[in-house]
Description:
By secondary structure, the chain is of the alpha/beta class. It has three helices and five strands, in the order E-E-H-E-H-E-E-H. The chain has one domain (10-104): 3-Layer(aba) Sandwich (Rossmann fold). Strand 3, helix 2 and strand 4 (69-72) form a beta-alpha-beta unit. The two termini are 26 Å apart.
Amino acid sequence: MQEGFEILALFDNHPAKVGQKSRSGIGIYDIQELRKHARRDGISIAVIAVPASAAQKVTDQVVSAGIKAVLSFSPGALKVPADVKMKSVDLTVSLESLSFYLAHGDSGGE
């Protein structure tokens, strides 16, 4: 646990990753098992970092698992029901801002 958050599980659909552990020892499970783990472990926040082509499908799986808060690093606007809180992080905009700062010596504001 770091900063008050505990990462309980990682999910993927790639057969070579499923059943493995992350570098920090967290189990990697098949995305099809998300609902079971979310209910059993009381997962309340999901972090999504998938290609844009898969993002809405994964978001739908997260919502159907009963998870009510989502942090997305995937590009594009994702749709969730009104009772689900979605926060998106646009890495492209952040990188462009940093690049602009380096090129122009601007303070960046963040």
